[in-house]
Amino acid sequence: MFTLPIRVYYEDTDAGGVVYYANYLKFYERARTEWLRQLDVDQVAVAQELDTVFAVRHIEVDYLRAARLDDQLTVTVTVKEMRRATIVFEQSILRGEEAVSKATVKICCMSPSKLSACEIPPFIRERLPST
Amino acid sequence: MFTLPIRVYYEDTDAGGVVYYANYLKFYERARTEWLRQLDVDQVAVAQELDTVFAVRHIEVDYLRAARLDDQLTVTVTVKEMRRATIVFEQSILRGEEAVSKATVKICCMSPSKLSACEIPPFIRERLPST
Amino acid sequence: MFTLPIRVYYEDTDAGGVVYYANYLKFYERARTEWLRQLDVDQVAVAQELDTVFAVRHIEVDYLRAARLDDQLTVTVTVKEMRRATIVFEQSILRGEEAVSKATVKICCMSPSKLSACEIPPFIRERLPST
Amino acid sequence: MFTLPIRVYYEDTDAGGVVYYANYLKFYERARTEWLRQLDVDQVAVAQELDTVFAVRHIEVDYLRAARLDDQLTVTVTVKEMRRATIVFEQSILRGEEAVSKATVKICCMSPSKLSACEIPPFIRERLPST
Fold it and tell me: Has B51 been annotated as catalytic?
């Protein structure tokens, strides 16, 4: 399972003294991006050379505990399912042993020029751990 | 059904040329806040005087189309379900007639001092349309 | 002087209970965008048809008072100076009569394809109030 | 000179394909926070136990080059001046050798309960490199 450490800064929090609910989605995406990077996939090159971007189609997020300023969190990434054009990730945000949030994220490969779904580039598919 | 008009600014977009997926959650919350306001509920006063805040517990979001810079959107709010401590909202983001996104949002009343769930303040419950 | 009303939402605040310092820049930009719009300038069309975007080159911001959740603010826009490729704006954020923040913002017209400064499109210049 | 490495994610960019101008302020603050942390200053404890927070009073930012998605940046922090209640920082954001942005940031120690300026806590002052 891939993990990314994340520190909570003022920018992430709100007047309730906790991390603002939309900002967990930033943490989840940073982890998916770093997961791609450690597979040696360069998102910018894939977009420019293969006319393919990864678009989020559906998310489901549980907010279990409140993360706070200065918290040191760990974001996890697991591939739950892969199809021709879509990948479903299971992710979580942990503070030590306890789960702060859990998420299921469905992304779809898109061709920006055609504005339509397209196949996951084969070279990426080959690098993904089979599930 | 309550609706709030929202304009898309540069701050909302990302390098993909579309609204960044986390930022839809900001639009959804602005609409819930204005929905409370038109019921004459002052969130800041409720927090200070009744030790009660509204915390998001669960969200489910469909991303159906891409919203873009300068788009004029409409965010909708409907109460789907109400219990002792929780409210479930059905929300959508429309561009003209077409749905850009749909969401189900479950919020829970919390006592910040006790760090535990608490009842929806009765005066708020009375103002909510029965469902 | 052009003015834009802005409401402070949770997304704008931080754990200090006030508007996060970077988010004032979002308010300032929303006001500049609406100022352009009321001059009937369509930023998206200008970018696509004239290969011209407005890039911020320099800002100077005074933080005078703290804006808070639910505050109703007014953002002002005045053109202080205009040259061939640059415009300097004087802006402020007011809460009622009191100034919450003041800013000087220098923007430059840029050609994204040439990555270099370019002239302010003449049709925009003609619509700007002379200073 | 203290430095912090920062990676640019989608959340940081806008539809112009570059880092949104307000988001550089987040990078600058992350670096000041980590600078404090390596001096072994715990901002949360200082706020709770000493009733003292660091509030930004004035910023001046030069935007010299555009940072882009996936860029690996370095944010620098130098103390330029220290007085009884204020510190002035010189900061920069570098991409390799080239400066992407430069900033001067004046912060002021504030007592949240008294809503007024207060002295820099002596234990922090002692740990600051003299200038």
Answer: no
